[in-house]
Structure formats: C-alpha cells, structure tokens
Amino acid sequence: KNSSFEVTFLLLNTWLSYKENRSKSSLMPLQGYIVYLQRCCFNFTGDVKVLFSHLFALCNNNADNPSPNEIMDYFVRIEMWNGVSLVLDSNPAVVKTIGLDTKVMADFLSTVGRCCRLTTMWGVLCNEQDLLEGV
C-alpha cells in the first residue's frame, strides 16, 4: 500500500467512525468535494480511486456499481471496519447473504448494536427472524 492510500484510508475510516457521517446526505457532499479535488489539484492513485468508488457506489443506483456484498467484501479485505458499518447501515439485508454461522451471530449482533444505527439492528433482526424463534 502506498502512503496516499494509507492517509486517505485513515482519514476516511476516522470520518466514518461518526454514525452521523454514515448517511447518503453526508456522503453526497463529500463525493462532490472529492470530484473537485481530483479535477483541480490531485491525481489520486488507483487504489484511492477504488476506495472512493466503493464508498460512493452505496449512494448511487448505477447498474455498473458493485453490489452491497462486493462493497462489504472490499471493506472487509482492506479492514476498513467503519466502511463495513456503512454498508450495514445502508443495506441491513446484506447480512442474510454473508452466511454467518449461528455460533458467531451473538457477537455479530453485539457489534452491530455498538457500531451501527438502531434502525440497522432492527433491519438485521427482521432479516434473521429465525434467530428469534422460540424466544
């Protein structure tokens, strides 16, 4: 990884650590600013462009965008956990497709409760109703 990516990763991950920044209304102005920076002053490296393209794909419904699963896999691969939280906040149903073992679901739900919005926890539970069976 190059230093440009590492700095961008660190800044973006820190910014995303605030739940209020993980919304479409917060991401869209950031997208405009990044486009402006790229045009006027900076030539972002390929890996920085990929990072931003995955981030902003969650805000746009273009057919060319990667799926929420692919975006989550990308954030997991680069270990950007606040990016994973962003995917869960914007698409709680993605949990159903990642195939978590029932044995880790309690830890996962605890993490979702700590790191994501309450509506995300509700969405996850609605998509995993079999967990609540017999309660």
Write up this protein.
With 135 residues, the protein is mainly alpha-helical. 64% of the residues lie in helices and 0% in strands. It has seven helices and no strands. The chain is elongated.
Termini separation: 47 Å
Poorly predicted ranges: none
The helix/strand order is: HHHHHHH
Q: What is the 3D form?
A: elongated
Keywords:
135 residues, mainly alpha
Detail the topology: elements first, then pairings.
Blueprint (H helix, E strand, L loop, with lengths): L2 H14 L7 H17 L5 H12 L10 H10 L3 H10 L11 H14 L2 H10 L8
Describe the structure concisely for a colleague.
This protein is mainly α. The protein has seven helices and no strands.
